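#lab-general

N.A. 3:47 PM
ok so I finally got the sequence cleaned up, no stray characters, all 140 residues accounted for. can someone with queue access submit it? mine expired

B.Y. 3:52 PM
send it over

N.A. 3:53 PM
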Amino acid sequence: MDTVFDVEESTNLVEDYLKRCPARDVLAVLADKWVLLVLGVLRANDGPIRFNELRRRLDGITQKVLTRTLRDLERDGLVRRAVYPTVPPRVEYSLTPIGADLGRLTHAMGQWALAHVDEITSARAEFDERAARPVEPLSS
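B.Y. 4:20 PM
back already:
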């Protein structure tokens, strides 16, 4: 999926995104930090993973949030849920092909974040320092 966008195509993409709800709804999935982290764990795993293992690997996520996130990802066709008829039932989660495709994009976002975390942290500290100073009138 190596697509190169020209400026005109990119502008049309933004305009279409601003006008059309379906694209907004799909992209809104990525706005959820837990979605990105769940996709990351599923992508990093060599095979299907059980709910409790996912929860252990996602520090800070609640059972309710993980359940909702997995259900939403399954509904969107990004995650496959397999239930095995055992007592108690065994449930495993894995990425679908489009989930794996999205996982490649979210992995690239994670790599970018790691590469720029120091710059962003510094920029935030500088901004906070400037914002804490009293406002001074401009001199003529």
